[in-house]
Amino acid sequence: MVASPPIPQEHDYNNAMSSLYESKILKQRNRELSILNTITEALNRSVDLDETLRVTLAQVADLFDLQTAWVWLLREGTGESYLAAAQNLPPALTKKPERMEGPCYCLDTYNSGDLDGAANVNIITCSRLKWLSEGTGGLRYHASIPLYAHGKKLGVLNVASGDWRELSPEDLRLLYTIGDLLSIAIERARLFQRSVQLGASDERNRLAREIHDTLAQGLAGIALQLETADALLDGQAAPAKIQHYVQYALKMTRASLEEARRSVLDLRAAPLENHTLAEALRALAESYQSKWNMKVIFSATGQNHPLPVQVETGLYRVAQEALTNAQKHANAQKIILRLVTTLDHIQLTIADDGQGFDPEKLIQGRFGLVGLNERVKLLGGQFHLQSSPGEGTQVEAIVPLA
Fold it and tell me: In this structure, are residues 107 and 81 in contact, taking their beta carbons and an 8 Å threshold?
């Protein structure tokens, strides 16, 4: 007689079902992590907003086996919506782009605040396709995922398929997480774009200072030499004397042309090429002393400390402008130029014994001093000005090196 097989115990059955459930959950979690990892890697490859949106739409459509996706964004400042990116829009919308203008049900719902959580990432009848019979590609519904950054409304991500299936709660939750990732990427791309715009503005200001510090001063000197030559010519002075001023004007013209070339090529200040800041400042002091017959005393502490190129260039221009101001406006006979470099900061001081002035009565728009202040601020430093009538002037720039 053959023995009957043992009857499975109830706890064995429960264990088997529990293992199957855990295996299913594990596979689901692995799938979700794989999708999120793929999209995160794609988003991290670029800070360009258009590329960020295109990559996300392509990944979402592929990973969820969806046909179409598009993103509405709200314009910063106005809050007006616009179509920022799209993947496989149906002909009814691509051939009639005006149908993608203006409000619609999903946007109105989002703007009213109803799309405000994972529970609301749900299926919505597309009001732009609802009454169309041709060119819709079978699309009638889409899932709308709200995009927020720190509570600020960014827009809506819509995904759709012609053979629409009911998305599981897990899929909806995953889409909401993807919406969070996309929101972060959008905000990052916008911040990067704003930094680029600020950088362009800073560069324009830098070029304005460079022009003032070099070309404008050079052209003013050329004009002065030519005006002198013209006056001597009217007075029928000796040709050799007139020629001296003309030749000096030509020399200054060549120097200004060289500075223009350097500015266009965005090189360091010419005197800093193959020289430290201290060496360049020493040469600058000697140049002003010989050219303008005034005493310029230069001293440097910690001059062998390596400095960032932008700090060297910025401080050299500060010294150049301050010396020019002392020569042109202060009638100074003696100037102290001092450079002190420590581990924490670098300090540049220019003090003259000229006629001084009242800082409270500066002429508005006097670009020289404004440029000095802006240049130091761009280096993250502090600019100090001390002067009074009859007491000379001292300017000081302190730039952190940490």
Answer: yes
Looking at the domain assignment, is residue 231 inside a domain?
no
Q: Is the pLDDT of residue 106 over 80?
A: yes
Non-local CB neighbours of 191 within 8 Å, separated by 6+ positions: none
* Shared-domain flag, residues 188 and 279: no
The CATH number of whichever domain residue 92 belongs to comes to 3.30.450.40
User: Per the structure block, which two tokens stand in for 54?
Assistant: 């295109």
Mean pLDDT on 129-157: 82
Q: How confident is the model at residue 319 (pLDDT cuts 50, 70, 90)?
A: very high
Q: Write out the two tokens for 399.
A: 């730039």
Q: Burial of 75 by CB count in 10 Å (0-12 exposed, 13-18 middle, 19+ buried)?
A: exposed
Same domain, 183 and 39: yes
CB 66 within 8 A of CB 160: yes
Q: Please, are residues 128 and 72 in contact by the beta-carbon 8 Å criterion? A: no
The DSSP bridge pattern shows strands 334-341 and 295-301 to be parallel
Task: Tell whether 176 and 286 lie within a shared domain.
Answer: no
User: What type of residue sits at position 359?
Assistant: P
Query: What tens digit of pLDDT does each residue of 259-300 get?
Result: 666 555 444 455 676 788 999 999 999 988 888 888 999 999
Per the confidence metrics, is the pTM higher than 0.70? no
Closest by CA to 148, choosing from 193, 190, 179, is 179
Identify the CATH number of the domain in which residue 345 sits: 3.30.565.10
Cα–Cα distances in Å, from 274 out to 5, 280, 317? 93, 9, 17
Which two tokens mark 207?
């070029």
Report in angstroms the alpha-carbon separations of 391 from 184, 353, 370.
57, 7, 21
Residue 28: HSE in the Cβ half-sphere, 13 Å Cα cutoff: 12
What HEC string does 172-224 produce?
Answer: HHHHHHHHHHHHHHHHHHHHHHHHHHHHHHHHHHHHHHHHHHHHHHHHHHHHH
Mean pLDDT of the chain: 78
Q: Which residue has the tokens 């010396």?
A: 323
Among residues 348, 252, 339, the alpha carbon closest in space to that of 304 is found at: 339
